[in-house]
Design goal:
10 helices; nine-stranded mixed β-sheet
């Protein structure tokens, strides 16, 4: 990602970075997933079409957007995924893809290698097959995820592995981090946040770790502890969502962030410039406060 101090010449309100949930469809059904409740044929049919996606991307590029994160659901499950991805690269965005890794075939890895992403982030919630598939509820998903990871490493695609800490995998987090380190230049991120499901369900919270358990986990590793301390500091920069960052959902709704979808602007019927510069400034977030800590919703939790 572009360092914020390199962007000081930009106006305070400028659409630097977009996180786009391009589908809620997924081939897995992770127990703590907040989008899986929308992984239904009737809702999938309402997701943005390819032409709509390409038009919106063109409008974002025209407005100056630099970074685009394609997430889901599982973004690669869209039959038009590479059409979208390659268009994004050609628009000049720094593209990050959040994926569960299980759909990365030789052919897909070759396409990533031909038009390289800024980074791919793969969710690795367990190191053993038992834990991984207990979480994903997908037989064979552990094997496919590790194979997909290897295909990207072979092509030297910038890669980060990430896990969400929960009751089901807390005993394997340190081993996952060590595994990532053993792969060479592969990064690792630990997410700690559970989110309510998009339909308001509280299912993911059944797997949340207590504050005490999270502290014990983080204290076992210097990097994790450092990051946990950094996130808990109150003097971090204020939330920039809606100012320099924004979110688009699978149906073309422009929103402040993935964690606050209460107000949105329909990019299907309006233009990106109108949505971002004229309508979004009217959106509110009760958790947003000057000099409050950075978003409570880091972009790590999701495949
Ligand atoms: S967490 Fe990611 S991989 Fe798991 S079901 Fe949800 S979208 Fe799919
Ligand atoms: S404070 Fe949190 S919920 Fe509100 S806009 Fe910022 S990131 Fe989103």
């Amino acid at each position: 990602m572009v360092r914020r101090d390199k962007l000081h010449h930009l106006p305070e309100r400028f659409p630097v970075a977009c996180q786009w949930e391009i589908t809620c469809r997924c081939n897995l059904h992770c127990v703590m997933c907040y989008t899986d409740c929308f992984n239904r044929p009737d809702l999938i049919r309402q997701e943005l079409t390819t032409p709509d996606m390409l038009r919106i991307m063109d409008e974002m590029a025209d407005a100056g957007t630099l970074e685009l994160c394609l997430t889901g659901g599982e973004p690669m499950i869209r039959p038009d995924f590479f059409h979208i991805y390659e268009h994004a690269i050609r628009c000049g965005f720094l593209v990050t893809v959040f994926t569960n890794g299980t759909l990365i075939t030789e052919a897909a890895a070759d396409r990533f290698a031909a038009l390289r992403p800024h980074r791919i982030e793969i969710s690795l919630h367990g190191l053993t097959k038992e834990t991984f598939e207990r979480i994903t509820q997908g037989t064979g998903s552990n094997h496919r995820c590790l194979d997909g990871t290897k295909l990207l490493i072979d092509r030297q695609i910038p890669l980060t592995l990430k896990s969400t800490a929960m009751t089901l995998n807390q005993h394997e987090i340190l081993a996952i981090k060590q595994y990532a380190a053993s792969l060479g230049s592969v990064g690792y991120k630990l997410g700690e946040e559970m989110r309510p499901e998009l339909d308001g369900g509280a299912g993911p919270f059944h797997y949340a770790l207590s504050e005490g358990d999270l502290r014990i986990l983080n204290q076992q590793d210097e990097d994790l502890w450092k990051e946990s301390c950094r996130q808990s500091r109150t003097e971090l920069s204020p939330c920039r969502s809606g100012m320099q960052r924004f979110h688009i959902d699978a149906y073309g709704k422009l929103q402040l962030c993935s964690g606050n979808r209460r107000q949105s602007y329909d990019l299907r019927s309006g233009s990106f410039r109108e949505g971002f510069f004229e309508v979004m400034p009217t959106f509110a977030c009760e958790w947003k406060a000057p000099l409050a800590s950075e978003p409570i919703h880091p972009a790590v939790s999701h495949a």
